[in-house]
Write a sequence for this structure.
């Protein structure tokens, strides 16, 4: 069987099973069993494939996923996130469009602690949109920053999706996490600049209103009690990883422990919050581990059938500039993001794109960050970006999908601008991991 026939058979089986309504992880597993039977010698091949898949789940690099998820769930269910947002709101005073800035600043902090775009968007949407609507904010001023900031959870550490991508691609987990710091902060700054421009062009989009005055002493107290401890926890974790004091797995453990200690100090750690946090983290962890199992076996089948080598030889046989090939892969991810959720995209593309990127001479950490940004953009890509529907679920009932789509566009442009910066100046991504 030719390589393209093997590739079509494997991917076609997966797409068919997904179209029939089978869960993503199970669709990959079923297609892998079919492929092992055809390409690896029947029952013996299936047993070997499954044994290799179980081996992929024993990697120490997977440990940060449940711990980062638990960290974010505790932060959400104990109400620490609400305290941080309330404090930032009071610190900004009468700044025009201040609630939009609160969304970006508070959302960036929450994203770093939660590592979950859906969780971040759900929290911000339920907290901020009704409040901004009551204050007379136009929809694009309330919904847009939330959609943009929700995606920051993908690239700013700790990010469970970055850990999963690094594990699937077999690259350094810590380096990929650290690589997202500077681009993530640049993206947050671009979002703030976008809000500033929007308030200048249309002052009525964020009407001014009276706010209770707070003294300097009160603001200092808010900053030191409700903002610095939460953000400081993330900073300590990142600094320890950069300096090699802890591994990503140990950093995740320290982060989860740190949030627990903060919740105890603020007396908001209840038994109900613990149960909800464990339940939420366990649900997503099990899904992630099934995905790792399916991806590991899928990668082996691509290699064993000759599909991955044939595809690389075919792609590199064209006289295309490597950057042009990068843009093609980026475009494929954006198109897939209109119809698939991010983990499914990673399962389908990582085994193909990373070997191709390495053969083209791209730094794997830099390419991993580019891929994370593509996933972040596809989260809000109309018509089927996942965060668009999360926002629809938590926004006021009269919010239309058209309003949500239009609100997302300026922040998608910011992300595309960051991708262009990374292509023109790769050290933005790879300098900090090299320093560490």
């Amino acid at each position: 069987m030719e390589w393209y026939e093997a590739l079509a058979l494997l991917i076609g089986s997966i797409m068919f099973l997904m179209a029939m309504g089978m869960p993503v992880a199970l669709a990959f597993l079923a297609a892998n069993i079919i492929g092992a039977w055809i390409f690896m010698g029947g029952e013996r091949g299936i047993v070997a494939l499954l044994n290799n898949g179980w081996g992929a789940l024993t990697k120490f690099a997977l440990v940060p996923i449940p711990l980062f998820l638990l960290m974010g769930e505790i932060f959400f269910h104990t109400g620490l996130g609400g305290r941080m947002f309330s404090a930032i709101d009071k610190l900004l005073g009468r700044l025009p469009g201040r609630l939009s800035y609160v969304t970006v600043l508070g959302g960036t902090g929450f994203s770093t602690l939660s590592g979950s775009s859906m969780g971040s968007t759900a929290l911000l949407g339920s907290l901020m949109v009704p409040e901004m609507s009551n204050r007379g904010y136009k929809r694009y001023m309330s919904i847009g920053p939330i959609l943009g900031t929700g995606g920051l959870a993908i690239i700013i550490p700790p990010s469970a999706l970055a850990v999963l991508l690094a594990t699937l691609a077999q690259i350094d987990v810590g380096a990929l996490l650290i690589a997202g710091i500077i681009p993530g902060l640049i993206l947050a700054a671009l979002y703030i600049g976008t809000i500033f421009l929007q308030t200048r062009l249309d002052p009525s989009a964020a009407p001014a209103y009276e706010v209770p005055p707070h003294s300097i002493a009160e603001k200092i107290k808010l900053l030191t009690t409700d903002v610095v401890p939460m953000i400081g926890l993330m900073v300590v974790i990142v600094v320890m990883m950069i300096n090699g004091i802890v591994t990503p797995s140990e950093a995740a453990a320290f982060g989860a422990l740190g949030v627990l200690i903060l919740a105890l100090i603020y007396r908001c750690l209840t038994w109900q919050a613990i149960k909800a946090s464990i339940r939420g983290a366990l649900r997503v962890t099990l899904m992630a581990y099934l995905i790792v199992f399916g991806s590991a076996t899928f990668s082996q089948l691509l290699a064993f059938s000759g599909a991955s080598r044939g595809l690389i030889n075919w792609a590199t046989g064209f006289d295309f500039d490597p950057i042009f090939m990068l843009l093609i892969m980026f475009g494929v991810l954006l198109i897939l993001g209109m119809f698939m959720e991010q983990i499914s995209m990673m399962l389908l593309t990582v085994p193909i794109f990373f070997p191709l990127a390495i053969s083209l001479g791209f730094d794997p950490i830099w390419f991993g960050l580019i891929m994370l940004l593509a996933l972040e953009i596809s989260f809000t890509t109309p018509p089927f970006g996942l965060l668009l529907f999360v926002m629809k679920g938590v926004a006021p009932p009269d919010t239309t999908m058209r309003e949500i789509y239009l609100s997302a566009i300026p922040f998608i442009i910011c992300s595309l601008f960051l991708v262009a910066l990374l292509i023109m100046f790769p050290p933005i991504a790879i300098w900090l991991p090299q320093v560490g």
